[in-house]
Amino acid sequence: MKRASTPRRVRPAELPFYVSSADAPAKRQILMAALELFARDGLCETSVRDIAKVAGCTNPALFKHFSSKDELADYLFERCYLELSRIVDRGMRSSKSFRVRQRAIVEAYIDALTQDPNAVLYVQDGLRRFWPRMPAATRKHSIAGRVRTLLSDGRDEGMVTREVELELLTVVWLGSVQQFARAHYFGDIKGPTDKLAVDLEGLLSRVVHT
């Protein structure tokens, strides 16, 4: 039996990143309800009626802001993906050192996971479905591409093995982080975020090291 949930009413200063202060109050509640339900129950299992009920509105009110559930799902995915991409970009700009940049990305990623786990899981689980539907401008912000660049630069420092194909290393790096996020989401991994960041970064370094 699914646990009933209602998004907490928030002041504009506390709005999650995927909600704009310019959005109508009903739209804010729709976005927060939809993301929670999509991440927890899945896109196919979530109906427009489910979203409207949790958001405290009617189906027609939802359609006032989004023409369909698919449009709402696309909108949320793009907002959440671009935020995670910005996190990776900030880490990439933090230093020229591979280990420092990798640590910055991991720390920011864990912080995002702690602050808004639904957004992180929604991106990870929806990537195959949504990525081909994203506009060209969004696809330029490829997280996989950023990680590939990080690992390529790490090779130049002698910190990343040349004995394994770079594409495979990228997949393993991302897969490790994504699996960590799922385990953290379901409470299988617990602990202070600073220690988790140190442990995860150290593990990633061992995975890709020479």
The level of helicity is 55-70%
The coarse silhouette is elongated
CATH architecture of the largest domain: Orthogonal Bundle
Provide mean pLDDT, rounded: 91
Order of helices and strands: HHHHHHHHHH
Gyration radius (Cα, Å) is: 18 Å
Helical stretch tally = 10
How many separate domains make up the residues?
A: 2
Beta-strand percent range: under 5%
Strand runs, count: 0
Largest sheet: none
CA(first)-CA(last) distance: 49 Å
The first-level CATH class of the largest domain is given as Mainly Alpha
Output the structural class. mainly alpha
What is the assigned CATH homologous superfamily of the largest domain? Tetracycline Repressor, domain 2
- Low-confidence segments: 1-13
**The CATH topology of the largest domain, please?**
Tetracycline Repressor, domain 2
